[in-house]
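Researcher: I'd like a structural prediction for the single chain below. Treat it as a standalone chain; there are no partners to consider.
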Amino acid sequence: MSTPATEPAAATASSSLEAVVDVPEAAHAKRRGPGRNLPAAIAVGAALVVLLLVSVLVVPQAFPVVAAIAMVAAVLELTRALSAGGLEVPPVPLLVGVIGMVVSTVVFGPEGLLLSTAAAVSVLILWRVSESMGLTALRDVAGGVFALAWVPFLGCFLLLLMDQEQGPLLVLLAVLGPVGNDVGGYIAGVLLGRHPMAPSISPKKSWEGFAGSLVLGIATVTAVAVLALELPWWTGVAIGAVLVVVSTCGDLSESLLKRDLGIKDMGHLLPGHGGVLDRIDSILLAAPTTYVMLEVLLP
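Model: Treating it as a single chain, here is the predicted structure.
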């Protein structure tokens, strides 16, 4: 039987032992786990890569259709997400705008994209104002313009790249850069992640993961630039580094938007990845960045 004098000592020793035992578990808890259904994510990712390669290299005529379907799905996800934040953005003029912008870009190039974007914004304003006026309508129109600018306007730069000489390879350059960024960041973050990059926005992103993104993102873009496009190696390194930074900013921006809207994913269409917009958010920023950098570096 324990005496009153020995019970506190025993309790203290027990607490100390538990603290020692819990140290490795606490340290292990700082490491980032997979955070997703990994087999499903790998399978879906592989299917998306195959779809990209087939539509770009084998049947390039199908690429505008694939791009349009992806942008329509992303816009629908975005309108549903904005509705969670109290914005009632009318989906019909947005979807018509997406199709019009894709067709105009394919047929008329950059001028077609600019004119169709202006027309889509005008139709959106008239559509929403015809339903009601006031501050609510203004907020809804602002949300709709944001959706048009983020998804179809930026996404159509892939079509502009596709229309250039060696277009299919330029599209791969713009898409595989963000892919390398995501894969490298995920692997390095899971294995080595210790120091959060932006804990208030995306707790799972770490500086170690960003280093992995730089390594694999730059390597992927440089390989495509040198081996397929026969560009100078420094061009691939420069474009790759910028695409990694831009892609990371795109991921963080969407994470910030989802946090403000109180949602985890934009959708659930792609198992292990979330929604279509979750998958293409960084590509949407990488496409115009690639287009502009190629114009600057290779006039």
